[in-house]
């Protein structure tokens, strides 16, 4: 299925929580610098960010594609909470088509501009509670940061249900949650990541008053995912991250009921 056959029209916001998320992330998009939680000043920033996206994809996404024999070609991928699209671009190298969605129209506009030469990637604004795509069109979904910034369990449940709706039966997902870790020990960062030159920056949040949902236990995450129609196959630590962002859940969409 081609991108334009999958996407729905950019939706209007329909909940107060989603409206707050849009305002918060649009504020980030309006910052004078090329703003991302991992980016700082403009010098070499765009090239650095997209290089890091490709490197993270090789170390985080590729092992899952290989472990579960996920055929990347002839498939449509979804980047949920795509921001500027650095991982959307990496997914575009691995899948025939990729769609990036984000609650911030400002970030979507920037992603479209920054990825304007990537012919198999499309970007669309979401309303913070649903996915602007038709049923059963996505083969692989990736969500790196979106669930960590959701303001409530209600928002998490709504997004999980809609991600399950757009995923094909037996399709796979890789989602990062804010997870209560079994140990406080950080995950070691490989030397090639820790030594990589990066723009000087201070970590920014999306809004000074932003409060996200508290980290969840893995049992609670599994329960929420099962309630949405997913099986949780495993939790994986991110080898590119020291552990403060939490591991990722590998999910599979259950078969549609007969």
UniProtKB/TrEMBL annotation:
<dbReference type="Pfam" id="PF13649">
    <property type="entry name" value="Methyltransf_25"/>
</dbReference>
<feature type="domain" description="Methyltransferase">
    <location>
        <begin position="78"/>
        <end position="171"/>
    </location>
</feature>
<dbReference type="InterPro" id="IPR041698">
    <property type="entry name" value="Methyltransf_25"/>
</dbReference>
<dbReference type="GO" id="GO:0008168">
    <property type="term" value="F:methyltransferase activity"/>
</dbReference>
<keyword id="KW-0808">Transferase</keyword>
<dbReference type="InterPro" id="IPR029063">
    <property type="entry name" value="SAM-dependent_MTases_sf"/>
</dbReference>
<keyword id="KW-0489">Methyltransferase</keyword>
<dbReference type="GO" id="GO:0032259">
    <property type="term" value="P:methylation"/>
</dbReference>
<feature type="region of interest" description="Disordered">
    <location>
        <begin position="236"/>
        <end position="258"/>
    </location>
</feature>
<protein>
    <submittedName>
        <fullName>Class I SAM-dependent methyltransferase</fullName>
    </submittedName>
</protein>
